[in-house]
């Protein structure tokens, strides 16, 4: 997918000193070292982003129908949500494919999820408002990850592992920058699409790049089975599919593959975002087949510290229906 947001596009942040529901605008450069942020409870009605997955969003919020809540109703809503049982639905999803989170993710992205996310990550106009917004959010995350990678020095000749490459939205731009890329994904369908896109964009010469970029090496693999050593390892928008207990091991393994730098994005876990996610889980669409997990920045930081890494840069990317924390970690 070609990144749809320009590097000069402003990114929105919630600032702890603003007690009303507003957004501050920061440039992507500011994103890399933003002030400590914490979302505040809104005092006016707002559209609730279903953070569970784009599939729940597409099924429940079609661009014209939204769940709306005022800030004064947060406590009441939390009480109602405490009576729901999203874990039961998650267990049923796992039973369908005969396994846990990994099997659910693999089955989904090799089947119905592949076509849906290929469309979201692509450039087709055949997307609804929510999917288009998620496409924008993901592209901003990709752009800012690339900025993290290229800010200090060019990446020509630098080895990069793109763990969870999807359709190649990060791997292909990195190859254009001259990086030597291993692109892996748990979904064979996603890897095949990424390789197809790379051949069209890198080998066809339509961009007139000189010297010709090195084609990424594509591999079907889950995160924990990846091998080798790379200057930098990047894992974007993958941890949302795994609980913290699994994410800890994945983060540790990814760090063991990286020599200089590890870049991660994840859906941030705060009381506010967790509440919005639970609202989305009240309305599971018929095609919803993946689970969604939020992760607190403190938990991610602890997982990194356990293996001798520290966070050097951090930022928050938000659109109406997309929230992601982006961090760059280096050896402590």
Describe the structure.
- The chain has helices at 28-31, 54-60, 74-81, 86-97, 101-110, 112-121, 129-150, 171-176, 188-203, 244-257, 271-281, 297-306, and strands spanning 11-13, 24-26, 46-47, 68-69, 159-163, 180-185, 217-220, 230-235, 258-266, 309-318, 323-331.
- It is of the alpha/beta class and 332 residues long.
- The chain has one domain: Rossmann fold (3-Layer(aba) Sandwich).
- The strands form 3 sheets. It has a 7-stranded mixed beta sheet, with helices on both faces. Strands 1-2 form a two-stranded antiparallel sheet. A two-stranded antiparallel ribbon has the order 3-4.
- Helix 4 crosses helix 5 and helix 10 packs across helix 12.
């Amino acid at each position: 997918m070609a990144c749809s947001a320009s590097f000069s596009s402003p990114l929105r942040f919630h600032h702890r000193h603003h007690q009303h529901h507003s957004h501050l605008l920061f440039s992507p450069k500011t994103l890399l070292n933003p002030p400590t942020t914490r979302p505040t409870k809104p005092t006016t009605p707002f559209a609730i982003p279903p953070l569970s997955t784009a599939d729940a969003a597409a099924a429940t919020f079609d661009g014209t129908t939204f769940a709306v809540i005022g800030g004064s109703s947060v406590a009441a809503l939390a009480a109602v949500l405490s009576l729901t049982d999203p874990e039961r639905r998650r267990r049923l999803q796992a039973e369908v494919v005969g396994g846990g989170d990994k099997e659910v993710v693999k089955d989904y992205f090799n089947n119905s999820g592949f076509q849906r996310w290929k469309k979201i990550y692509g450039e087709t106009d055949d997307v609804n408002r929510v999917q288009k917004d998620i496409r924008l959010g993901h592209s901003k995350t990709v752009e800012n990850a690339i900025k993290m990678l290229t800010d200090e020095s060019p990446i020509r000749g630098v080895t990069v592992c793109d763990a969870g490459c999807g359709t190649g939205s990060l791997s292909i731009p990195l190859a254009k920058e001259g990086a030597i890329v291993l692109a892996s994904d748990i979904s064979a369908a996603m890897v095949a699409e990424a390789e197809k896109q790379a051949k069209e964009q890198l080998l066809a010469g339509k961009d007139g790049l000189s010297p010709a970029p090195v084609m990424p090496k594509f591999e079907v693999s889950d995160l924990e089975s990846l091998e080798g050593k790379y200057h930098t390892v990047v894992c974007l928008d993958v941890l949302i599919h795994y609980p913290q207990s699994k994410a800890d091991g994945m983060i540790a393994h990814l760090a063991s593959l990286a020599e200089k730098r590890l870049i991660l994005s994840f859906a941030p876990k705060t009381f506010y975002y967790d509440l919005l996610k639970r609202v989305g889980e009240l309305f599971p669409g018929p095609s919803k087949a993946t689970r969604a997990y939020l992760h607190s920045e403190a938990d991610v930081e602890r997982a990194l510290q356990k293996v001798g890494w520290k966070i050097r840069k951090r930022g928050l990317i938000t659109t109406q229906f997309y929230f992601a924390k982006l961090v760059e970690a280096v050896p402590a």
